[in-house]
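Pipeline run #58 for the internal structure catalog. This entry was flagged by the ingest filter as a single-chain record with no existing model, so it goes straight to prediction. Upstream metadata was stripped on purpose; only the residue string is passed forward. Reviewer on rotation: M.T. Logging verbosity set to normal.
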Amino acid sequence: MFYRPLILLTCTLSFACAEEILQLDKISVEETYSVIEERKDNSIAKRIIKGEELAQYGDMNAQEMLKRTPGVTISEGKGKKGAPGKGYTKVLIDGEEVSSTKRGNPLEHISPDMIERLEVMTNGSAEHSAESMGGIVNIVLKKPSSEGKTIAKVTAGAYEGEPMASVFVQNEGKKGKLSYLVNTTLSDNSQDDSSSTLTERYNENTDTDSRYRSLSLNTKLIYAPTSKEKYMFDGALNRSDYTKESVENRMGSVNETLLHNDEGDALMIWAKLSGNHNLSGTELVEWKLKYHENDSDGITRSDDATTQSEQNDQGTFRVFGTEGSYSKAYDEHFIKTGIELKHLTQNDEVSTYVNSVLDTADKQNLREDKGSFYLQDEISIGENMVVTPGIRYEHSLRRFEQSVAIDYFAPSLHALYKLSESDNLRASVAKTVKLPRLSELSSSLDSSLDDNDLNHPDVSGNPNLKEESAISYELRYEHFFDDKGIVSIGGFYRDISDKIEKLTTYDSGTGRYTERPENAGEGKLWSLELELKKSLDAYTKGLGIFANATIQNSSLVTDGVKRTIKGTNDYIYNIGIDHRFEPYRLTYGAAYRYVSGYDDPIDARDVAESQEGYGTLDLYAKKRLDSTYKLGLNLKNITQESITTTSKRYSSGVLSETQIDNENSRFHFLVTLEGRW
């Protein structure tokens, strides 16, 4: 019984289970296998959220959707916005790692309509990358269905009076032995934001106008010449550009106006060819060939009354990879082994000009070759227990200013005990690592020009950065309701070595701030995670609720001094309610997300930071007009809370500077018309 969900996961990640049934001894995987059933039976603990449960709140892309996912934290606030995967969470798209650059983030190109579900794992198994510090989020995209259909969705709205619009079109079906899915997303969104900064030297008010445009083309092809063979192709082409113009009015000892302009574009290409071969009733072979490319370039300008500063930056990131795996069901065992090879390159060019005169020019070329091998066995013990031990070996050779070889073994052990048909008890332990990204090793400087301050420092890498490693323990209880609902409580403890943190240093000679990643010391992180999804049909027909919460605590010891890990929120929670009023074919609901604050003490570079908590309320309503069309309305960020970040710099233990930043959040609305044929 435990083999079925593992093979389902295997097939899902390689797009092998479009509509056929894969038959192995003890295995029968069907398209109708539900999310709840898979979560209940899977030997690896994971939280699974269907895409449609999150898409209804009007999120424009996968980046926004992840904020509602239990256990995922995305930094926000002035100068702090970023994608998951840069800190504790490894983000995958159909099992492939997300690689973002300063001007290109693949998550922003994924429409919620493309997402089948999200899978969140605290501890990955041996078949997942050991580079999963803090867990894994896998975004599983939809696969072709045998039923031919076309979807068109038009969304329009306004953000503080600025227009927002997107168009999504998808066609899928099957012709003979070929299943296909093709979609495109076109978006053009503008924003008008305001923020303020208060220091001892000045009070600054900033108005920012920005425009983001993107075009995304995606295709999935599945060719099944026989019942035992499948070949898959996945391709994506994403093109985006943006402009951002800021006017900063500073009032203090000297009143001045700073003009800041940032514009850039990015091109992302994803391609993967893979195959599935059922050798016998109990054996399965899979292989993949993949290529990823992320190119970007941009210009940043900053003008004051006397100086015109400009930075030109270009970046190219490429990945060539191949992998293969062999799986075999044998008595009470399901054994899987595999190998993966990758070649990564990153090229950065940065030039800065002052009053049209070249000031600095830097060029970095980084190379990395990675290889991994894993062996995993899923062992059924009686009717109620399954144990999944595994071992993974990874080797990395990096070439930049110096050549560095890194290799390590990463063992893992997962256990599932079925207390009853509705209750699970899970436990796991795994070693994980966090290798520095190539951009974190590059010594090229990304200047903030005239906008340089505590929360807008210059950004550079650290060629001497070491990998971060941890031992992570997890314990979780799950109860499944008959109505497909769930309640769970769990927690993890993580013992971290060579914790990587971004620290900001002030150079008194130049008067500038620079942020670099550094190995800050030995750390510990504790977390309690709660989750609830329940139908309330017994009280009101069509009513349902969901809620999740993460409570966490941390510590870090640097040179004998103990403090918390930077930017660790005390708690985060999401709560929502949905109601379907069947007589009017109307569905409506609300979702509220709250992120608590944090209060970081002085770090190794004499900087302390704190942030106040903030909440966001979203409302939605959807009306089925007929069998083809559906109309939707989303009211986003009704609370309009500001995100307040306070930074303090000390000199010899004495407070020398305080900076308070307020980023004012804005209300916006969206109207959607969707048709399905």
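catalog note: The chain is about 5% helix and 65% strand.
catalog note: The longest strand covers residues 202-226.
status: ready for reviewer M.T.
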